[in-house]
Amino acid sequence: MQRNLILLGAPGAGKGTQAQKLSALWGIPQISTGDMLREARRQGTALGQKAQAFMDAGKLVPDEVVIGLVEERLGRPDTREGVILDGFPRTIPQAEALDRLMAKLKREPVWVLAIDVPEAELQLRLGGRRSCPKDNTPYHVKFNPPRQIGKCDQCGAELFQREDDRPEAISKRFAEYQNKTAPLVAHYGTRAKRVDGTGALDAILERIQRALVG
Ligand code: AMP
Question: Which residues have a catalytic role annotated?
Fold first, then answer.
């Protein structure tokens, strides 16, 4: 059975953390447009340069840029058994493009899961978030710390704080989320299942799995 899953949720809701767990559990790739864009920036590609100013300002990158990235990624063979989309779609035009793409690639329709976390908690989470530049493993200095301070558990790389996890960009990202991404839950209607994204990471993972079978 093919599993194609979209994870929706505000910045800091835990999409990346849960996507990584589900990816390991199901043996299918996590596709994070945020990670792909950060990688393009690190490599200094034309696309990375184009995305940089939007990302640092906490704004969404233009639809055609991310749609092109996802189209290319979904064309690769490792996606045939399914994918976990983390951070895409983030606008209604992106959701419409995804439906067209899945139909063109003859993939099964996607499951949609929205992770709910109150805004006050999101603020706390984003301030302490750290990431691995090599394998993108997400951490939090307090809620999900690495075994050794500042170092990735998986590969030992020095963790970094994202530019857009600083206070000025955070408020812009929330505004973008409210205006452009939150309407996707209504857009998907009954296709979208909702789960409470607070509490222990493994408890959230269980809730997600239960919501998808139920
Ligand atoms: P994320 O790591 O998912 O929080 O994404 C970081 C940043 O990358 C976002 O604030 C946007 O600037 C950009 N980005 C990632 N995914 C998308 C998307 N689907 N549409 C537009 N911009 C995106």
Answer: 15, 90, 129, 162, 173
